Amino acid sequence: MREVRRVFIFGSTGSIGEKSLEVISINKDRFEVFGLSANSQIERLAKQAINFNVKVVVVPNKQARERFYKAMPICYNVPEVLIGENSLMNVASSGLYDIAIIATSGVAGLYSALEAAKSGKRILLANKELLVIAGQLFMDAVSLNKTEIIPIDSENNSIFQCLHRNSYLDNTKNEFANNYINKIILTDSGGPFRSMSVDQLEDVTPLHIYKYHNWQIGQKISVDSATMINKGFEIIETFWLFSMPIESIDILIQPQSIVHSMIEYSDGSVIANLSKPNMEIPISYALSFPDILENNVGFLDLSKVCSLDFFKPDLERFQCLNLSFEALNAGPGYCIVLNAANEVAVEGFLSGRLKYTWIPRVIEASFEWYSSKLSKKLLSLDEIINLDLEARYFASNLGIGLS
C-alpha cells in the first residue's frame, strides 16, 4: 500500500492553490491536505477546509479568524486556526507534513517560505518573486538542508522535467553536468501585444490585456505576461534553480503555448516539453515525482496543432524583459528593485493612474535611484525586505500619479 503524503498549501485561495486542490481531489489515495493558509478570501478558505477536512489553517489576523469561524457550519469539527506570520513560520518548519506548496505571490510569506526551505521538505514553488529577490539566501538554505525543490510554474517545471528525463541532474542539488548543456530556452506566448508597434502600446488599457491569454491567470500576472517581465522573473528563477550562466538562458516567443521549454545540448540536439497549457500538469508532476499521475487535462493531439511558431522577442516592444536581464547582470539588489518597482507600476496602470508604456520607465528610474545608493550586502531577509520597501517608496513618489 502506497504511503499517503501530507500537504500544506501556502496561499490556497489563489489560482495555483485552487488548482493544487483540484489535483489532490482526484488523488486522495495518495495525498492528504494537512493545512491551508490565506491572506484574503477567508470564506473561500473555510469552504476548502471543509472539503478537505484539514487539521490547521493560518489566517492573517483576529478579524480574519472571526470571519473563518462564522463561515464554518454549526457542529462542524473546526480545524485549529492560527494567526499571523509567526504562526505561518512555525507551521512551515513543522514536521507534521511532507510537502509544502508555496502558492503565495509577491513578497508575502517569504519568511515562512525560507523556514520551509530549512526544513528539508519537498517544496513546490510557484512564487517567482521569492527567487527574484532572495535567490541566493533561499538556494543556500535548500542546499544546506538537502531540501527538494520543484518549480511549478510551467516553463521551469518543464526544464525540470527535461533534465530529470535523463541522468544528468542531481536530485538533491538541482545541479547537472552543464558541460552537456549548451542552452536553456524558455518560451512565452508573447501575449496580446506581440504584433503591436511601439506607438500602438501608448493606448493600451487593462481591458486589452484581460481579453487575451492562453492561461487562466489573475490581473497582475496578466499585465506581467503582457510586458513579459513575468518571463524576466523566470530567467532569474532559472539562473538560481539550475545554476545556469546568464548567457546560456534564452527566450523564444511560442504563440501557441504548446512548447513550454527546451534544453539545447552540446551536440546540437534539443529536448522540448510539450503539453496543453494547463497548470494541472506541472502541479501533478511535482506532487508525485518521480512517479507520473493521471490527470483531467487530456492528451495533446499534435495532428490538430496547425503550426508551432518560434521567434525572438522584440526587446524594444518588451522593455521589461530587457530590464530583467540587466538586473540579473547587475546583481541581487537590482533584482529586488526590479520586482518592487514593477509591482508599484502595475498597480498604477491597473488603477488608471499610469500609462502602460510607463511601467518600464518606472523600473528604469528606480534602477538609477538604486545605483546612487551605497551597495548593500543583503545577507538577511530583513535587509532584503528593507530594500524592497525603500524601492517601493521611491517608485510610488516619482511624481507621475503613483503617490
TrEMBL record:
<feature type="binding site">
    <location>
        <position position="153"/>
    </location>
    <ligand>
        <name>Mn(2+)</name>
    </ligand>
</feature>
<dbReference type="InterPro" id="IPR013644">
    <property type="entry name" value="DXP_reductoisomerase_C"/>
</dbReference>
<comment type="pathway">
    <text>Isoprenoid biosynthesis; isopentenyl diphosphate biosynthesis via DXP pathway; isopentenyl diphosphate from 1-deoxy-D-xylulose 5-phosphate: step 1/6.</text>
</comment>
<dbReference type="InterPro" id="IPR036169">
    <property type="entry name" value="DXPR_C_sf"/>
</dbReference>
<feature type="binding site">
    <location>
        <position position="155"/>
    </location>
    <ligand>
        <name>1-deoxy-D-xylulose 5-phosphate</name>
    </ligand>
</feature>
<dbReference type="Pfam" id="PF13288">
    <property type="entry name" value="DXPR_C"/>
</dbReference>
<dbReference type="InterPro" id="IPR026877">
    <property type="entry name" value="DXPR_C"/>
</dbReference>
<dbReference type="GO" id="GO:0070402">
    <property type="term" value="F:NADPH binding"/>
</dbReference>
<keyword id="KW-0521">NADP</keyword>
<feature type="binding site">
    <location>
        <position position="231"/>
    </location>
    <ligand>
        <name>1-deoxy-D-xylulose 5-phosphate</name>
    </ligand>
</feature>
<feature type="binding site">
    <location>
        <position position="127"/>
    </location>
    <ligand>
        <name>NADPH</name>
    </ligand>
</feature>
<feature type="domain" description="1-deoxy-D-xylulose 5-phosphate reductoisomerase N-terminal">
    <location>
        <begin position="7"/>
        <end position="135"/>
    </location>
</feature>
<keyword id="KW-0560">Oxidoreductase</keyword>
<comment type="function">
    <text>Catalyzes the NADPH-dependent rearrangement and reduction of 1-deoxy-D-xylulose-5-phosphate (DXP) to 2-C-methyl-D-erythritol 4-phosphate (MEP).</text>
</comment>
<keyword id="KW-0414">Isoprene biosynthesis</keyword>
<feature type="binding site">
    <location>
        <position position="13"/>
    </location>
    <ligand>
        <name>NADPH</name>
    </ligand>
</feature>
<feature type="binding site">
    <location>
        <position position="230"/>
    </location>
    <ligand>
        <name>1-deoxy-D-xylulose 5-phosphate</name>
    </ligand>
</feature>
<feature type="binding site">
    <location>
        <position position="225"/>
    </location>
    <ligand>
        <name>1-deoxy-D-xylulose 5-phosphate</name>
    </ligand>
</feature>
<feature type="domain" description="DXP reductoisomerase C-terminal">
    <location>
        <begin position="274"/>
        <end position="392"/>
    </location>
</feature>
<feature type="binding site">
    <location>
        <position position="189"/>
    </location>
    <ligand>
        <name>1-deoxy-D-xylulose 5-phosphate</name>
    </ligand>
</feature>
<comment type="similarity">
    <text>Belongs to the DXR family.</text>
</comment>
<dbReference type="GO" id="GO:0030145">
    <property type="term" value="F:manganese ion binding"/>
</dbReference>
<feature type="domain" description="1-deoxy-D-xylulose 5-phosphate reductoisomerase C-terminal">
    <location>
        <begin position="149"/>
        <end position="242"/>
    </location>
</feature>
<dbReference type="Pfam" id="PF02670">
    <property type="entry name" value="DXP_reductoisom"/>
</dbReference>
<feature type="binding site">
    <location>
        <position position="234"/>
    </location>
    <ligand>
        <name>Mn(2+)</name>
    </ligand>
</feature>
<feature type="binding site">
    <location>
        <position position="154"/>
    </location>
    <ligand>
        <name>1-deoxy-D-xylulose 5-phosphate</name>
    </ligand>
</feature>
<feature type="binding site">
    <location>
        <position position="14"/>
    </location>
    <ligand>
        <name>NADPH</name>
    </ligand>
</feature>
<dbReference type="InterPro" id="IPR036291">
    <property type="entry name" value="NAD(P)-bd_dom_sf"/>
</dbReference>
<dbReference type="InterPro" id="IPR003821">
    <property type="entry name" value="DXP_reductoisomerase"/>
</dbReference>
<feature type="binding site">
    <location>
        <position position="129"/>
    </location>
    <ligand>
        <name>NADPH</name>
    </ligand>
</feature>
<dbReference type="Pfam" id="PF08436">
    <property type="entry name" value="DXP_redisom_C"/>
</dbReference>
<dbReference type="GO" id="GO:0051484">
    <property type="term" value="P:isopentenyl diphosphate biosynthetic process, methylerythritol 4-phosphate pathway involved in terpenoid biosynthetic process"/>
</dbReference>
<feature type="binding site">
    <location>
        <position position="218"/>
    </location>
    <ligand>
        <name>NADPH</name>
    </ligand>
</feature>
<keyword id="KW-0479">Metal-binding</keyword>
<feature type="binding site">
    <location>
        <position position="16"/>
    </location>
    <ligand>
        <name>NADPH</name>
    </ligand>
</feature>
<feature type="binding site">
    <location>
        <position position="234"/>
    </location>
    <ligand>
        <name>1-deoxy-D-xylulose 5-phosphate</name>
    </ligand>
</feature>
<dbReference type="InterPro" id="IPR013512">
    <property type="entry name" value="DXP_reductoisomerase_N"/>
</dbReference>
<feature type="binding site">
    <location>
        <position position="128"/>
    </location>
    <ligand>
        <name>1-deoxy-D-xylulose 5-phosphate</name>
    </ligand>
</feature>
<dbReference type="GO" id="GO:0030604">
    <property type="term" value="F:1-deoxy-D-xylulose-5-phosphate reductoisomerase activity"/>
</dbReference>
<feature type="binding site">
    <location>
        <position position="155"/>
    </location>
    <ligand>
        <name>Mn(2+)</name>
    </ligand>
</feature>
<feature type="binding site">
    <location>
        <position position="15"/>
    </location>
    <ligand>
        <name>NADPH</name>
    </ligand>
</feature>
<dbReference type="GO" id="GO:0016853">
    <property type="term" value="F:isomerase activity"/>
</dbReference>
